[in-house]
Amino acid sequence: MLFSTIGNYALLLGLFFGLVLFYFSAINLRNSKVLDTKILSFTFLQFLLVVISFLCLVLSFVISDFSNETVFNNSHTTKPIFYKIAGTWGNHEGSLLLWLLVLTLFILIFLVKTKNQPIKYRILTLVFQQIIIVGFFVFLIKTSNPFNYIYPTPTEGLGLNPILQDPALVIHPPILYLGYVGSSIIFSSALAATSLNLVSKKWASHIKKWVLSSWVFLTLGILLGSIWAYYELGWGGFWFWDPVENVSLMPWLALTTLLHCILVLEKKLILTSWVIILSISTFALSMSGTFLVRSGILNSVHTFANDPERGLFILTFLFSLIFLSLFIFFFFHNPSKNNPSNFFLLSKESAIIINNWFMMYFLSVVLIGTIYPIFLDVLSSQKISVGPPFYHKLIIPFLIPFLLIMTIGPKLKWIKSNLEDKIYLIVLLIVSILLSILIIKNFSTDFLINTILISSAFYLFFITLRDFFNKGFKNLAQNTAHFGFSLLILSILFNNLFSTEIITNLKVGETFENTKTKIIFENINQKGEKNYKSIRAKFIIQDSKGKIENLSPELRIYNQPNIVTSEADIKTTLFSDKFIVINLVPNQELFNVRYQVKPFMLWIWISVILISIGGLLSFAKKEYEK
User: Fold this and answer.
1) Which of 121, 141, 165 is the last residue of a domain?
2) Please, which pLDDT band fits residue 624 given cuts at 50, 70 and 90?
3) Among 60, 241, 297, 550, whose CB has the most other CB atoms within 10 angstroms?
């Protein structure tokens, strides 16, 4: 109870310091020759108070303080200490406290790292960031306080959802939040720069680092979520167009578009409107994700709150921020500096702009697919789900020109240029088409679209691969990211085309056999663990070439809460994964067995890591391109 009391008062004091910062900022704006040291001091103290509050919640989980409602709802005495700590942010209240912690950390870093920026700009960025921070303080204290008491104190907690008790999901939320909250600094900075008419090449170079860091963290966060879904949920896939998966993808699409616009703005004083709108949109999409996940509107394995009051608060707060942003944009932004007549079709910036429109189209498709079922439910009480066929049908045809422009665009120069090295571009295009036809020649369905799509991905792959050998370290960051993206598209396509699946029901000792695979269900073993009972099955898998694999999927029966989970066993090689998972068939001695061969799974993860490395390499560069 002591830690909860300290944590609660630390939150209240942090909110008070936020209001104090508004006061000192208003005074400092009148005399903006130097930044008032009180601003930096109170920003640090506010961050320190949130750290204290967060540590108090962690300690409450560690000691199983069930007088704390959050701990009672999300922990249990038998839970391993690792997951007790992770339980701090594995729930609604704790995750929002983590969000607030990162918000206060980032504005402190911003103030410390921007000593060479104009004082008014730094102060206004702080003001806009504090509006967000104070909003989160109020939200936490009023509707989602992680330090509410229970009296009398229960002797045992309800436990954490077993599917959340996983190492990947322990680090997934913090990394994802670093991406989300990084967009808040971009948002606040863009509003401050717009208000002061400071959106310029110099500002673009300054804010690019924040865009890159947010983008890298968001990319890695999405990767960790995909890996977790792949092996934990038992579906044998890395992406299902689940609404909550889409919620993290949408700000990533906006942030990727913003990053490319910032690169153009560094070279020419154009696209300022794009940059401001995308800065607002990225943060708005991150906040929308918070609203959708925590309002109970979305039905997903990832959601963990169902409270209309919380959803209404976030929605009201979000609309207030968007209204403020649009007001500043329309009344303070001066678009006269943009001169579209300077654009030439064969130029790097034109290629970036065209692909930005494609990115906005992809974003629109994902947004409609995510929110359309919600609106339909509200208007007609009709419940529908939008699945992969919707996204594939609308995205795949436009992915082809997107990849082609992504391939040719970097070959162009800024301002105006002719297409260089035409011969090797044509040769590699022909090679890509022939290789694609050779790979999928036996496919009768969608042969044309698959050939063109794989050819486009191969084309980007070969061009970026050639650039590595031809240009050495020149444009290394760009080439690494683009190469990773081409590898990602190819891996996903081959994974979808060549995956195989067997679903059958077997008793212990039985065998399933078809022309390509033999599955022998050899035995099961039971073992008691700290907070669950394990039922591990042993399977012998033999392929058509006689190669044998031993796989051991597992069922876990948790004691608190009393839930049965399926743990897949996966044998990973360089070119394919062998994936098996079992489930109990109710009231029978049968086990439902799902066995899959998933080509190029490892390369999906590697490709996203390469994309992230491309972003990290950009930090090491002094300039993007001459």
Assistant:
1) 165
2) very low
3) 60
Yes or no: say if 14 and 49 are a contact pair by the CB < 8 Å rule.
Answer: yes
pLDDT tens profile 328-347: 999 998 875 544 546 677 78
DSSP-derived 3-state class of residue 585 = coil
Q: Which of 258, 274, 265 is nearest to 213 (CA)?
A: 258
Find out whether the peptide bond into 173 is cis, omega within 30 degrees of 0.
no
For residues 615 and 212, the answer to whether their CB atoms sit within 8 Å is yes
| Residue where one domain finishes, among candidates 123, 149, 165 | 165
Look at residue 302 and give its three-state secondary structure: coil
Instruction: Show the tokens assigned to 397.
Output: 């045809």
Q: What is the pLDDT of residues 405-419, one digit of tens each?
A: 999 888 887 766 666
Does position 286 have pLDDT exceeding 80, yes or no? Answer: yes
For 594-605, the pLDDT digits (tens) are 999 999 999 999
Is 570 inside any structural domain? yes
Which residue reads 């540590």 in tokens? Answer: 55
Is residue 271 in a domain? no
Q: Which residues contact 89 (CB under 8 A, 6 or more apart)?
A: 95, 97, 98, 173, 174
Give the Cα separation of 300 and 303 in Å (integer): 6
Q: How far apart are CA 155 and CA 76, in angstroms?
A: 10
Mean per-residue pLDDT of the chain: 88
For 56-102, write each residue's pLDDT tens digit: 999 999 999 999 999 998 888 888 888 888 888 888 889 899 999 99
3-state secondary structure of 300: coil
For residue 625, pLDDT over 50 is answered with no
Taking the C-alpha atoms of residue 433 and residue 400, their distance in angstroms, rounded to an integer, is: 13
Whether 484 is covered by a domain: the verdict is no
Distance (Å, whole) CA 183 – CA 180: 5
Whether 309 is covered by a domain: the verdict is no
Structural domain total, the chain: 2
Among 526, 516, 524, smallest CA distance to 597 is for: 516
Q: SS3 letters for 482-542?
A: HHHHHHHHHHHHHHHHHCEEEEEEECCCCEEECCCEEEEEEEEEEEECCCEEEEEEEEEEE
- Whole-angstrom Cα distance, residue 592 to residue 234? 12
